[in-house]
Amino acid sequence: MVAIKLQHVSKSYQGPVIEDLNLTIPTQQITALVGPSGSGKSTLLNLIAGLTTPDSGQIWFDEQPIFDADQSLNCPPAKRQLAMVFQDFALWPHMTVHQNIAFAIETHLSKAECRKRVEWALAQVSLADYGQRYPRELSGGQQQRVALARALATQPDLILFDEALSALDPQLRLQLQQDISALVKAHHLTAIFVTHDRQEALRIADNIVLLHAGQVVQSDTAANLYQHPRNQFAARFMGPLNQIDDHTAVRPEHVHLVEQGADGPCYPGQILTSTFMGDHYDTLVQMADYQWHLKTALPYAPATITMTVDSSAILTY
Ligand SMILES: Nc1ncnc2c1ncn2[C@@H]1O[C@H](COP(=O)(O)OP(=O)(O)OP(=O)(O)O)[C@@H](O)[C@H]1O
């Protein structure tokens, strides 16, 4: 169980990367860190892990200070009760799956306890019979499960995932997102999940922290960030947006084609294209100075049309 608090945390390399950042990450939930490339997601994760040292500020795990620049306090990574899972799995190729997992824990446990713990961890990720294989004998998804088992075997309070699923194909990704979510809940862990994929963040996270240029734009539940973004950057980052004017917009799923004279706010438009997307058509419409995307069940030929929007779903910022 661990809630994380950062206060006035800054880190610079050639220039500032994390700037006077204040953030609380709730305990026993999955928090996704999202943001454009270079916004500081991995750096923030490494500051929490202790792999990178902040220039200033304080970090607490629960009420326990683990970093304080003013007091020269810096708890080493090994004492932070956390595990990390990376995109490239980071497994030793010359060790079996069992040895890879045991390597992280064997110094603290007896031989019998260690074997039991490895078997338990492999069972958690549905790889009970894979202990004697080498990483090269496993698929990418299985290798990432081993990395997850290795993390669980250390019985951490906190697991940090750095783009952990980015190398996997979409179907496998979906499965592992579900598995990670279930394991985090079952073991009452706190998890921080860095991803550049907003769909993944929406699917896996209870809370999302959106970063831009080393600062928190919005830290909120996934639903609030999507439905009530604080500004245009947050609104655009979290999903496609149809601009009504400079300060209002609506998501594609809340725009409908209607007969002229329908109730509610109506917008005239000119259909440009309809693109097949599998479960819907992405219909592109010129609306005044803006191009709108509509989710339609059927394709449409170029024509003049009228649209209405769900007024309760209009985003204002
Ligand atoms: N060790 C380092 N030395 C110098 N600059 C660094 C170092 N680590 C990160 N940076 C710089 O800090 C900035 C933020 O990098 P970071 O990896 O945290 O961003 P990110 O949001 O995780 O990006 P991406 O999504 O592309 O992985 C980048 O401009 C990067 O070049």
TrEMBL record:
Q: Which residues form the ABC transporter domain?
A: 4-238
Keywords (alphabetical) are:
ATP-binding, Cell inner membrane, Cell membrane, Ion transport, Iron, Iron transport, Membrane, Nucleotide-binding, Translocase, Transport
Which CDD domains does this one have?
A: ABC_Carb_Solutes_like (cd03259)
Gene3D superfamilies recorded: P-loop containing nucleotide triphosphate hydrolases (3.40.50.300)
Q: What are this entry's molecular-function GO terms?
A: ABC-type quaternary ammonium compound transporting activity; ATP binding
Q: Does the keyword Membrane apply?
A: yes
Pfam families reported in the protein's UniProt record? ABC_tran
Q: Name the Enzyme Commission number(s) assigned to this protein.
A: 7.6.2.9
The GO biological-process annotations, alphabetized, read as: iron ion transport
The record ties this protein, via InterPro entries, to: AAA+_ATPase, ABC_SmlMolc_Importer, ABC_transporter-like_ATP-bd, ABC_transporter-like_CS, ABC_transpr_FbpC, Mo/tungstate-bd_C_term_dom, P-loop_NTPase
Keyword check for Glycosyltransferase, yes or no.
no
EC main class here is: translocase
The record's section on PANTHER family has:
SPERMIDINE/PUTRESCINE IMPORT ATP-BINDING PROTEIN POTA (PTHR42781), THIAMINE IMPORT ATP-BINDING PROTEIN THIQ (PTHR42781:SF1)
Protein name as annotated: ABC-type quaternary amine transporter
Say which species the protein is native to: Lactiplantibacillus pentosus
| Organism taxonomic ancestry | Bacteria, Bacillati, Bacillota, Bacilli, Lactobacillales
